């Protein structure tokens, strides 16, 4: 390539790179339709009397605080805990995994407890170990070996139930969230607690 053409090519590349870098440094504009705004994620939500974000936060805070005071968790250093699916026995859809995820997050932050892979994620764990050990894609010295997973010391399990009653324009919903900590080896329940929530709404007649 002619020397002048090379210089032109290099100059063009430098210009493109400069434009890309300046574009990355520029703050993206805020797009808005005028109908959406951010709110406080911790604000009390009372749009309906169905299970909502405030209920989830209240349950997670109460259960995590109670569990971290359980003597069972102090019996050994940083016990290993797994989480079973919370059974939803209400008449409405409730993402119970989101509730237990919030509880687990708060407990993990304490540094007192470790969590094993729960039943819903176990297949992903097995697939990863299988890929590292049986596909030939990884160095044997670098792959994680089969048979070294730790068995959990405790299992967290629970249920959420509700009672719904109506009288004229009034609708009353009572929720009860129950959680237990079970010693997996002995099968004994080492801790249990409940969180109760009542929500009442009045539908005006038109």
Task: Give your account of this protein's structure.
There is one protein chain. With 206 residues, the chain is α/β, with parallel strands linked by helices. Helix content is 31%, strand content 25%. It is built from 4 helices and 6 strands. The protein has helices at residues 3-25, 53-67, 96-108, 122-134, and strands at residues 80-83, 87-89, 114-115, 154-167, 170-183, 189-202. Strands 1, 2, 3, 4, 5 and 6 form a 6-stranded mixed sheet that branches. The longest helix has 23 residues, at 3-25. The radius of gyration is 27 Å and the shape is globular. The mean pLDDT is 82.
Keywords:
25% strand; 6-stranded mixed sheet; 206 residues; globular
Describe the SSE topology.
Blueprint lengths: L2 H23 L27 H15 L12 E4 L3 E3 L6 H13 L5 E2 L6 H13 L19 E14 L2 E14 L5 E14 L4
Parallel strand pairs: 1-3, 1-4, 2-4
Antiparallel strand pairs: 4-5, 5-6
Summarize the structure.
The protein is built from 4 helices and 6 strands, in the order ααββαβαβββ.
- Compute the number of helices: 4
For the terminal residues, how far apart are their CA atoms?
Answer: 83 Å
Instruction: Provide the residue-averaged pLDDT.
Output: 82
Shape: globular
| DSSP strand count | 6
- Summarize the biggest pleated sheet: 6 strands, mixed
State the oligomer. single chain
Taking pLDDT < 50 over at least 5 consecutive residues as the criterion, the unreliable ranges are none
Using only CA atoms, what is the Rg? 27 Å
The level of helicity is 25-40%
Strand content: 15-25%
Run of helices and strands: HHEEHEHEEE
SS-derived structural category: alpha/beta
């Amino acid at each position: 390539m002619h020397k002048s053409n090379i210089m032109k090519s290099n100059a063009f590349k430098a210009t493109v790179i400069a434009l890309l870098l300046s574009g990355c440094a520029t703050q993206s504009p805020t797009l808005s339709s005028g109908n959406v705004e951010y709110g406080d994620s911790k604000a009390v939500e009372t749009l309906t009397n169905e299970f909502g974000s405030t209920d989830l936060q209240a349950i997670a805070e109460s259960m995590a605080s109670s569990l971290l005071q359980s003597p069972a968790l102090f019996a050994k250093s940083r016990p290993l805990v797994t989480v079973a699916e919370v059974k939803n026995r209400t008449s409405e859809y409730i993402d119970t995994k989101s509730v237990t995820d919030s509880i687990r997050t708060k407990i993990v932050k304490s540094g007192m407890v470790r969590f094993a892979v729960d039943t819903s994620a176990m297949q992903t764990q097995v697939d990863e170990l299988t890929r590292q050990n049986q596909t030939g894609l990884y160095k044997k010295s670098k792959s994680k070996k089969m048979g070294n997973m730790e068995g959990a010391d405790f299992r967290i399990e629970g249920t959420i139930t509700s009672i719904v009653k109506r009288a004229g324009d009034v609708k009353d919903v009572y929720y009860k969230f129950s959680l237990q900590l079970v010693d997996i080896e002995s099968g004994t329940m080492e801790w249990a607690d409940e969180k109760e929530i009542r929500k009442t709404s009045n539908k005006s007649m038109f």
